[in-house]
């Protein structure tokens, strides 16, 4: 019965504030503040999730999950090694490659980059490159035809397109003469251009494995074996297992060595932004304290009458906790609904704003991707909702406790 009385009176106080418009205004501001803070928090977390997912797909889709090499000049009998590696339960596919640094030259333009010799039919199993061609395809790489596939940024820098010629200068297999060391040079024909919107666009090129072997004079050797795992985020453990299964003649590394710092930085940035934006919700939630303090002052006589009618301090406390919590719950519900709706349609909203004002908010020349990604995760929504409700309910405790300590004699002295 006491619980129903506290709930009934608390709801009545929430809806009956016409006598004091200033208190109603402060309560409305606190509700809007909680709602807007929740919307911003859900939206920003979704954008960070989207960036992380896009980077994981585009960057880790191009780099090997695990690399297995042989100590020395290269891997011998890579087919035998491949069969042994394929027995691991977490390995999806493998592919050999030969990689080397080179200087690209076309007319007056020169650029440095990384060249990988690949088997086109195997590369589609270990890389996402086949899904991001803007000209040509992997099928255009034929052995001894010396075709080359360039990243879009590299192709633009060299000023070449499909069918144009590019000269490659490499130090591996260089010719030594009395005049000095002369780098090997070979002319290639552009057989394709890809664009994954990552660093690979500006620094990577692909040629056929047999052409790479001829150019570097490796013969039947390959630089290493590329391994794709079931779970890229668990590649470190797969690498550990493979390291234990193989002999000491081989070395095993994973993507954490080359790109781990980048993803750790993104994760830390997401955490820090989440903490900072939570302060917005906290500030709005603690506005409830000032609202309830004014309500308690305004309702002194009502509190005194309730106490003289037999209401206990706990009942009085519950009344004002109900009133303050209701503000927080309404604001949180508004924020969650608005945040989920905005995060779910953010790319379309940004595209509409860009077309309306003729501006580009995310430039592909500056950022790894040319659109604003958004990935709504319900675990984040649940966490944000819990934080908002916890902060708002906690903010009601002190004013409600002060109301429960009201002395009826003092409150009614001048009534």
Task: Describe it.
By secondary structure, the protein is of the alpha+beta class. Helices cover 54% and strands 20% of the residues. Strands 2-3-8-5-7-6 form a six-stranded mixed barrel, surrounded by four helices. Strand 2 and strand 3 (109-118) form a beta hairpin. The protein is elongated.
Care to count the β-strands?
10
The proportion of residues in beta strands is 15-25%
Name the average pLDDT: 84
Shape: elongated
Measured between the Cα atoms of the first and last residue, the distance is 29 Å
What is the rounded Rg?
A: 33 Å
Structural class: alpha+beta
Treating each run of at least 4 consecutive H or I residues as one helix, how many helices?
Answer: 14
Order of helices and strands: HHEHEEHEEHEEHEHEHEHHHHHH
What characterizes the major β-sheet? 6 strands, mixed, barrel
Q: What topology, given as strand order, has the largest sheet?
A: 2-3-8-5-7-6
Report helical residue fraction: 40-55%
Task: Name some characteristics of this structure.
415 residues; alpha+beta; 2 domains; six-stranded mixed beta barrel; 10 strands
How would you concisely characterize the structure shown here?
The protein is of the alpha+beta class. The chain is built from 14 helices and ten strands. The chain folds into two domains: 2-58 and 263-411, no CATH class; 66-254, no CATH class.
Layout of strands and helices, then pairs:
Blueprint: H1 2-15, H2 21-59, E1 66-70, H3 78-85, E2 91-106, E3 109-118, H4 120-126, E4 133-136, E5 147-151, H5 152-158, E6 165-177, E7 180-194, H6 200-203, E8 204-208, H7 209-216, E9 224-229, H8 235-245, E10 250-254, H9 256-298, H10 300-308, H11 313-344, H12 346-357, H13 378-404, H14 408-411
Parallel strand pairs: 3-8, 5-7
Antiparallel strand pairs: 1-9, 1-10, 2-3, 2-6, 2-9, 4-7, 5-8, 6-7
Helix pairs in contact: 1-11, 2-9, 2-11, 2-13, 9-11, 9-13, 11-13
